[in-house]
Specification:
The chain is an alpha+beta fold. Helices cover 28% and strands 24% of the residues. The protein has a five-stranded mixed sheet. Strands 4-5-6 form a three-stranded antiparallel sheet, covered by helices on one side. It has a two-stranded antiparallel sheet with strand order 3-7. Helix 1 crosses helix 5 and helix 3 packs across helix 4 (82-91).
C-alpha cells in the first residue's frame, strides 16, 4: 500500500471546443509539466468528462430541442428545463425513476446515474443553450489520450476519464471513473487475509473511482482545471475496461 498519494492539477489547456484534438493538446501540457515533474511508473492521469465531451462534439443545442409532453409536465412541476429533461429521456436506455426533480436513467454505457450524465454546467460561452452528453465510448477516449502521451513522451501513462456521480442514500457527489486505459479499475481482494488473518469474502476495491476522487480534490468544479496527475496510488496495470466495474443486472438488488 502507498505511504503517500499526491494529486497535482495540470494547467494550460484553455477552453476546449468541438473538433479540438484533445489527446494531442493534453499530451502537450503533460509534456510541459513533465519538464519540472518527470513522470513516474505509479502516475495516473485523470481527465474530466466535460472536456472530452466538448472536444468530441457530444453536445446538444437546446434551442433545437422540442420537448415531449411528459418532459414539459415534469419540468413545470419541479422547475426544470423541459428541453434538458427531453434530452435525458432521449439518451436513456432505461428510465429507472423520475421523482423530486431528478431523472435516474441507465445510459447506453450501463451507468445508472442522475440525468444520464447530461450536464449544463461548465459548458463554455454558450452556457444556458447547450448541454454536454457523456462521451460515446469513454474507454476509447482514454485510449486515445494515453496513446498521444506515449507517442510524445515515450511513457505509458494510464488514463482515467472521470465524471461526478451521486450515491444512493448520501448527499453530495464524488468523481468516479467512466473510462479507463492502462489500468484495471478494480482490485479483487476476495480470498486474501485481512490484517487479522481473516479471509475477506466480499472486498473489491474500486481503484479507478478512488483515483478519480483524489484528482477531483485538486480539480474542483469551478477552477477550470480539467486534468490532474495522481501519484503514488496503488493500482494494477492492464487493459481494463470500465464495464468491468459495473454490476450486472442479474446481481442488482434495486432493479
Amino acid at each position: 500500500m502507498a505511504d503517500r498519494v499526491e494529486a497535482v492539477a495540470i494547467a494550460g489547456l484553455g477552453e476546449i471546443v468541438p473538433g479540438d484534438d484533445l489527446p494531442v493538446m493534453i499530451a502537450a501540457v503533460v509534456a510541459k509539466a513533465a519538464d519540472v515533474m518527470p513522470l513516474l511508473d505509479d502516475d495516473v492521469l485523470v481527465v474530466t468528462q466535460k472536456i472530452v465531451s466538448k472536444a468530441e462534439g457530444a453536445i446538444v443545442d437546446l434551442t433545437s430541442v422540442e420537448p415531449r409532453l411528459e418532459a414539459v409536465a415534469f419540468a413545470e412541476r419541479w422547475d426544470r428545463d423541459a428541453r434538458q429533461v427531453e434530452v435525458v429521456l432521449r439518451e436513456a436506455r432505461r428510465v429507472v425513476r423520475m421523482a423530486n426533480g431528478v431523472v435516474i436513467t441507465e445510459t447506453h454505457h450501463g451507468f445508472v446515474c442522475a440525468n444520464g450524465g447530461i450536464d449544463a454546467s461548465n459548458v463554455g460561452p454558450a452556457s444556458g443553450n447547450i448541454v454536454t452528453l457523456l462521451p460515446r465510448d469513454p474507454d476509447a477516449s482514454a485510449d486515445a489520450i494515453r496513446g498521444a502521451i506515449r507517442e510524445r513522451l515515450g511513457h505509458d501513462l494510464p488514463v482515467i476519464v472521470s465524471d461526478s456521480f451521486g450515491r444512493p442514500w448520501r448527499w453530495g457527489i464524488v468523481d468516479v471513473a467512466i473510462g479507463v486505459s492502462g489500468l484495471l479499475p478494480l482490485e479483487d481482494l476476495r480470498g486474501r487475509p485481512d490484517a487479522d488473518g481473516r479471509v475477506m469474502r466480499s472486498t473489491v476495491r474500486a481503484v479507478a473511482d478512488e483515483i478519480a476522487s483524489a484528482a477531483e480534490l485538486v480539480l474542483g468544479k469551478t477552477a477550470g482545471r480539467p486534468v490532474a496527475l495522481v501519484r503514488g496510488a496503488t493500482f494494477h496495470r492492464g487493459e481494463g475496461r470500465i464495464r468491468d466495474a459495473l454490476i450486472p443486472s442479474e446481481m442488482d438488488l434495486f432493479p
